[in-house]
TrEMBL record:
Keywords: ATP-binding, Nucleotide-binding, Transport. It holds the Pfam family ABC_tran. SMART domains: AAA. Coiled coil: none annotated. It comes from Paenibacillus mellifer. PROSITE patterns: ABC_TRANSPORTER_1, ABC_TRANSPORTER_2. GO terms for molecular function: ATP binding; ATP hydrolysis activity. Residues 5-235 form the ABC transporter domain. This is ATP-binding cassette domain-containing protein.
Length: 293
C-alpha cells in the first residue's frame, strides 16, 4: 500500500445533477490533507464516499489499501469519522461517554479507562471529565466528539469541518490534537471552510470546484500558483501610497520601482506582500488566476 487514500476518476450524480465530475487525488500516509471548496462544491459527498457512507457511480476509491465498495467492511475498520454534529450522551460525563464508546468498540474495561484518560488529557478535558456533557460548551463538545472518534486507534481519520463555530482557543487545542495524531502516523483528511486552518494544519491543500480538484499543493505552492505578489509603498504614517502586482523577478521589481521613484516621496517604505490564503481561494474558485489588489 503506497498511499492512505487513492481516488481515480471518481464520479457521483444525484438525480441527474453531477456533484463529483472526475476527481483524482492521493494522500500519502501520515499526512494531513485539507479539502477546501465553496458551499455545494461536493466536499461532504466526497468525504461520505471515502468513508463508505455513499456509493460512487464510477471510479476507483481505495482507503487504507481497501476498495470502498467491494471491501467496505475492511475500510470501515480502518477509519474513523467525525461529523459536524456531535453524537454524545448529554446525561453522562465526558469520561463516561468515552469509556462507554470504548467498551462498545470492544475494548476491555481497563483499556477503555486508560485510553479515555489519555484522550481527555490530549484534548484539554481532564478538568471537565467528571462533569455531565450537558454542561459543556460547544468547543468542549467538539473536542469530546473528536476524542470519542479516536477511542479505538484507526490509521485514517476523516474530519468534516472539525472546528466550525469554535472559538480561537478551542480551535487551537483541536489543531494541536490533530497535529499530534499526524505525528503519530495517522493520516488525516479534513474538510474546512477556514483557510487559516488549511494553512496551519495541512501538508496538502486541495481546492474542489464544480466537482473537480482545481488546485493541489502546499499553502506556499498555491500562493505561488496564483502569482499575486505585490509591491506596497507606505508613507511615514503607514498609509498605503501605492500597490502594484509583481511576478517577483528583479527585472519586474526594478521596473516598478523606477517607475514609482519619480512619483512618490523619497522616504516612502517598500515591502513585498504575498497573497493571503483568502485571495488564493477566491482566485482559484472564481477561475481567475489574477487576483486584483
Ligand atoms: N443525497 C443527496 N441527494 C441529492 N442531492 C445531494 C445529496 N447529497 C448532496 N447533494 C447535492 O450535491 C451538491 C454538493 O453537496 P455537498 O454537501 O457534497 O457539498 P459541500 O461542498 O459539502 O457543501 P457545504 O460546504 O455547503 O457543506 C449539492 O448541490 C447538494 O444539494
Amino acid at each position: 500500500m503506497n498511499h492512505a487514500i487513492e481516488v481515480s476518476g471518481l464520479y457521483k450524480s444525484f438525480g441527474g445533477h453531477t456533484v463529483l465530475n472526475g476527481v483524482d487525488l492521493v494522500v500519502p500516509r501520515g499526512t494531513v490533507y485539507a479539502l477546501l471548496g465553496p458551499n455545494g462544491a461536493g466536499k461532504t459527498t466526497l468525504l461520505r464516499i471515502l468513508s463508505t457512507l455513499t456509493t460512487p457511480d464510477a471510479g476507483t476509491v481505495r482507503v487504507a489499501g481497501y476498495e470502498v465498495v467491494s471491501q467496505k467492511n475492511e475500510v470501515k475498520r480502518s477509519i474513523s469519522l467525525t461529523g459536524q454534529f456531535t453524537a454524545v450522551d448529554e446525561v453522562l460525563t465526558g469520561e463516561e461517554n468515552l469509556v462507554m464508546m470504548g467498551r462498545l468498540s470492544g475494548l476491555a474495561s481497563k483499556t477503555a479507562r486508560t485510553r479515555a484518560a489519555e484522550l481527555l488529557e490530549r484534548f484539554d478535558l481532564t478538568e471537565a471529565a467528571r462533569k455531565r456533557v450537558k454542561t459543556y460548551s460547544g468547543g468542549m463538545r467538539r473536542r469530546l466528539d473528536l476524542a470519542i472518534s479516536l477511542i479505538v486507534s484507526r490509521p485514517v481519520l476523516f474530519l468534516d469541518e472539525p472546528t466550525t463555530g469554535l472559538d480561537t482557543l478551542s480551535r487551537r487545542v483541536l489543531w494541536e490534537g490533530i497535529k499530534e495524531l499526524a505525528r503519530q502516523g495517522h493520516t488525516i483528511f479534513l474538510t474546512t471552510q477556514y483557510l487559516e486552518e488549511a494553512d496551519q494544519l495541512a501538508d496538502t491543500i486541495a481546492v474542489l470546484k464544480d466537482g473537480q480538484i482545481v488546485a493541489t499543493g502546499t499553502a506556499e505552492q498555491l500562493k505561488a500558483q496564483v502569482r499575486t505578489d505585490r509591491v506596497e509603498l507606505r508613507d511615514a504614517e503607514d498609509q498605503l501610497v501605492s500597490r502594484v502586482t509583481t511576478d517577483g523577478t528583479i527585472r519586474d521589481l526594478l521596473g516598478i520601482l523606477n517607475d514609482l521613484q519619480s512619483r512618490v516621496a523619497a522616504d516612502v517604505r517598500v515591502s513585498i506582500q504575498r497573497p493571503t490564503m483568502d485571495e488564493v481561494f477566491i482566485s482559484l474558485t472564481s477561475g481567475d488566476k489574477e487576483v486584483s489588489a
